[in-house]
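note to self — DONT lose this again. spent like an hour looking for the file last time. sequence + predicted structure for the chain T wanted, 298 res
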Amino acid sequence: MSFYEEISANRRMTWLLFVIFFFIIVALGTVISIVMENLFFVPLFGVIAIIYILISYYRSDSIVTAVSGAKPANESKFRQLYNIVDEMSIAAGIPKPRVYVIEDSAINAFATGRDPKHSIICVTTGAVDRLSREELTGVVGHEMSHIRNQDIKVMTMAAILVGLTVLLSDLILRMFLYGGSGGNSREGKGGAIFIIAIVVGVILAILTPIIAQIINFAISRKREYLADASGAELTRYPPGLASALRKIADDKEPLEAANKATAHLYIANPLKGQKLWMQSLFDTHPPIESRIQKLLSM
């Protein structure tokens, strides 16, 4: 796939995420309307979905940095980091991203934003302190590739939409558990509809975060391989990123600010030591060993 084809594919995926998210939210609103016997919730949830999509799109960088505890990097204190970002943005031929840091000794980094003109590269202070210049350049080159390829648009939207779908599904489960629409008695056909609505609602509430996570993970692994290759092309030194990934793999410290909604944004899985059901399916990143081997074979 060419550079331009990759960008076009990312734009299509972004729209697909928006459409899937919209219909999931409207479906949840429909179930609530049936249970509450009030159709007001269908248009209400539709409006909420549209507003949230617009806010997420235009304020995605602010949302992700706030959730991650990232702060603008002081240019005098992080002079080397700024120099590397300057070099990589010139090599990539895109506007210079804003530079942020997370105060954490774990080694990691991510990029976010809706396009190259509104992008951010964020690294942990652990990456700045513990990586050599060549390794840090490899990491920044990887994240710069995500920006250039406009992966950040899809990855950031996935993180934000996953977070809200999980929140809404949890809200619906709580509503059903605590009595639905006030515990009014229902008989005959009305009672059957109510029971069906509850069953459908519970199924949707359970499946919504799972579907969102599957979408999330499906778009992550391939993009990491592509960003590794593209980043190595920018730096002209694949061993730099390979060495950085080796240090990240050897680092057993989890990143405190990361969570399951934002984990796929990072260059490597920040949730160290967490055992997940069906780990191979629900892993946000390809195996680091595989990534290192591909880099060293270039």
